[in-house]
């Protein structure tokens, strides 16, 4: 193991949010059964994941893979040490998330709100300009918190837009400042199309930290479209990010972002953190075993490089 000196304070630990059941699968054309989604969820819990994005509350005609969101959530393990996230693009999504808790059911724990940092992509992804997204997300965060859900928000396309190209950092920071006024659990920056590079990541997260109160933490979400995802994850850790999203096997992609490929692989992120002496609580061998099992479900090898090297 190596302890690498860092430009910023080296965190004692990093939290990994497994997004495979939602972001990892949403772009898959062949529908994965509810039982297999639950098998993935249960295996990743066994590997040590304690926070997981399990579904999104979107119209099934737009994202058919998420048509069974409520069925998946209904059979989630009822564990006190787990936090389950449901992605919500609008207030209707928050209402569906709250409905999963009716009748004393476990349901989701967090409403994962989303705003896009470009008008064109925002309109294609969820029918909202930036201005409309700010208003909607303010209401969503307030409503979710009032009704007993934790609320967090992701600023999507924070490092570049598939339609408009460059996204000014000031646009991202202005959105973050607006969202911070509603006191979400955390604010995430997402490189939805995998165009960011480490210098950009350090700069943007460094500036974000300066404007956020200490109790609002930062989360990072990277796609590996241009093979910079893991380097960007390390840059985020160096910048004080304490939570990183990852998807088993490197699965993923956005139905509304042309040519965007998968998330950083959970196995690859675990390897990076293990080798850098940063605690995270997830077992690499069990994650690789889950990868090998899920390959039989997907009927193809998964992109994770570490899983291939360590198999």
TrEMBL record:
Gene3D superfamilies: Aldolase class I (3.20.20.70). It holds the Pfam family HMGL-like. Residues 14-288 form the Pyruvate carboxyltransferase domain. The lineage of its organism: Bacteria, Pseudomonadati, Pseudomonadota, Alphaproteobacteria, Sphingomonadales. Belongs to the HMG-CoA lyase family. InterPro entries: Aldolase_TIM, HMGL, PYR_CT. The keyword Glycosyltransferase does not apply. This is Hydroxymethylglutaryl-CoA lyase. It comes from the Bacteria.
């Amino acid at each position: 193991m190596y302890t690498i000196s860092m430009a910023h304070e080296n965190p004692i630990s990093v939290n990994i949010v497994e997004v495979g059941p939602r972001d990892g699968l949403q772009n898959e054309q062949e529908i994965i059964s509810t039982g297999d989604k639950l098998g993935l969820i249960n295996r990743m819990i066994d590997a040590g994941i304690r926070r997981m994005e399990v579904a999104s509350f979107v119209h099934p005609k737009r994202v058919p893979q998420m048509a069974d969101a409520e069925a998946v959530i209904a059979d989630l393990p009822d564990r006190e040490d787990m936090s389950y996230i449901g992605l919500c693009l609008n207030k209707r999504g928050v209402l569906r998330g709250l409905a999963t808790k009716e009748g004393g059911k476990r349901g989701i724990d967090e409403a994962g709100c989303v705003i896009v940092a470009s008008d064109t992509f925002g309109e294609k992804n969820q029918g909202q300009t930036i201005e409309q997204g700010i208003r909607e997300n303010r209401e969503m965060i307030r409503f979710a918190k009032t009704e007993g859900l934790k609320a967090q928000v992701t600023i999507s396309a924070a490092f570049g837009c598939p339609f408009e190209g460059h996204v000014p950092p000031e646009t991202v920071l202005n959105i973050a400042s607006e969202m911070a006024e509603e006191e979400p659990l955390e604010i995430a920056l997402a490189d939805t199309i995998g165009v960011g590079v480490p210098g950009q990541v350090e700069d943007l997260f460094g500036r974000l930290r300066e404007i956020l109160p200490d109790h609002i933490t930062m989360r990072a979400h990277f796609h590996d479209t241009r093979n910079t995802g893991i380097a960007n994850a390390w840059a985020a850790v160096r910048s004080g990010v304490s939570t990183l999203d990852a998807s088993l096997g490197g699965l993923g992609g956005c139905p509304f972002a042309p040519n965007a490929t998968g998330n950083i692989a959970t196995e690859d992120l675990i390897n990076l953190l293990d080798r850098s002496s940063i605690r995270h609580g997830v077992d690499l061998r069990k994650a690789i075993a889950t990868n090998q099992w899920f390959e039989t479900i997907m009927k193809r090898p998964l992109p994770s490089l570490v899983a291939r090297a360590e198999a």
